[in-house]
Here is the input.
Amino acid sequence: MASYPLGEDMPRAASVLKDILDAEVEEELQNRLSRIEGHVRGIKRMLTEHASCENLLIQLSAVRSALNQATGRLLENHMETCVTDCVRAGQGEKALRELKGALTQVIKNL
Here is the structure.
């Protein structure tokens, strides 16, 4: 069985995300990720064409920045929806514990 962050099983996590993720934010993230995907394909092409290491490093840095922006946007939406809803439902400690775990992983991977 696959292991997912914070002990979540993927089907449940996907279901919860669909119910809570704002449609506008979802579309924004889909667009951002599509651009990132295209950017990565471009970097692969640059590698095949033997672009300079400096140019490859700059482009990889741009992808990391774009991923950080997408992560930040999702985190912002998560706090505005999921965490807020849990606090209102009296499950604030659980929400904060899970947020702390997610943030620890995000920061670890910066």
